[in-house]
Structures are given as C-alpha cells and as structure tokens.
C-alpha cells in the first residue's frame, strides 16, 4: 500500500486529501469562467438567481459576508448592468435585488463554460472512475450543506 492510500484511510487523512483536491478543482473551475468578475460577485449573482429576489441584507447573509462588503459588490454588479434594485413590496425602507437579462446571460454562460470544461475532463476518466464519481456526487453535496 502506498503512502497516499494509507493517508486517505484515516478520517483526518481523507479530510486533508479532499480539502486539497476540492480546493484545486474549485480554483480550476473558477478559472474556466472566462469573465472579469470575482468569486464574490459571481456568488452574489448566483444567490439572487436561486432565490429570485433578495434584499441586500438577505444576500449578505446568504453569502456569509458583512453588509458593507456586499454593498460594494452590489454597486459593482449594478454598475455593470447585471443587477437591478426595485422597491420592496411591503417595506418601503428596503429594496429587492433582481438579475437583469445580462446578469442571467452571464451566469448561464459561466455555468455552461465550467460544465463543458468538467465534462471534457470527465471524458478522460475510465468508466469505473466515472461511476465512482457518480456515487460520490450526492455525498459531496450532503457534505457541502453541513
């Protein structure tokens, strides 16, 4: 048994190996986006898309950032024509953020590029490796919600 196999047998070793591998994969996928937005800006657009419409405070909470940071992110996305603000339906002190058509298009293109890159990489794997990843996908999803 090689050193790497013995290290991944312990829970701590598996955690370390997954952390490194997932971090590298995440960096590679971010690099495949092909746009000039930061990970925070893309995350904010994605959260607004998933939740249809959010207040700035709700968006900051979803993205686990401080409201002043999110205010800067929102301002940039709004200036780029990717988000719009509209009056809150019940609270006149609040605004609701929504994606513009350009923001929706950018997000869809971002996802398409990343998925195409990953599909190409998956095609390079053996059928057995692809099967293992199919089984691991729901487990990784469950870990991400913990």
From TrEMBL:
UniProt-recorded name of the protein: MarR family transcriptional regulator
Keywords from the named record: DNA-binding, Transcription, Transcription regulation
GO molecular function, one term: DNA binding
InterPro entries reported in the protein's UniProt record: HTH-type_Bedaq_tolerance, HTH_MarR-typ, Tscrpt_reg_MarR-type_CS, WH-like_DNA-bd_sf, WH_DNA-bd_sf
Gene3D superfamilies from the UniProt entry: 1.10.287.100, Winged helix-like DNA-binding domain superfamily/Winged helix DNA-binding domain
Disulfide bond found in the keyword field: no
Transcription keyword on record: yes
Source organism of the structure: Actinoallomurus iriomotensis
Residues of the HTH marR-type domain: 11-142
């Amino acid at each position: 048994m090689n050193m790497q196999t013995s290290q991944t047998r312990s829970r701590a070793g598996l955690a370390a190996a997954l952390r490194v591998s997932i971090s590298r994969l995440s960096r590679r996928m971010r690099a495949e986006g092909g746009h000039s937005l930061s990970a925070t800006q893309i995350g904010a657009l994605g959260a607004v898309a998933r939740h249809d419409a959010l207040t700035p405070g709700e968006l900051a909470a979803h993205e686990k950032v401080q409201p002043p940071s999110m205010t800067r992110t929102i301002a940039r996305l709004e200036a780029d024509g990717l988000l719009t603000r509209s009056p809150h339906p019940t609270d006149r002190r609040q605004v609701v953020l929504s994606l513009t058509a350009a923001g929706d298009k950018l997000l869809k293109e971002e996802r398409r590029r990343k998925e195409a890159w990953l599909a190409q990489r998956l095609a390079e794997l053996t059928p057995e490796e692809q099967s293992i990843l199919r089984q691991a996908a729901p487990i990784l999803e469950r870990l991400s919600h913990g």
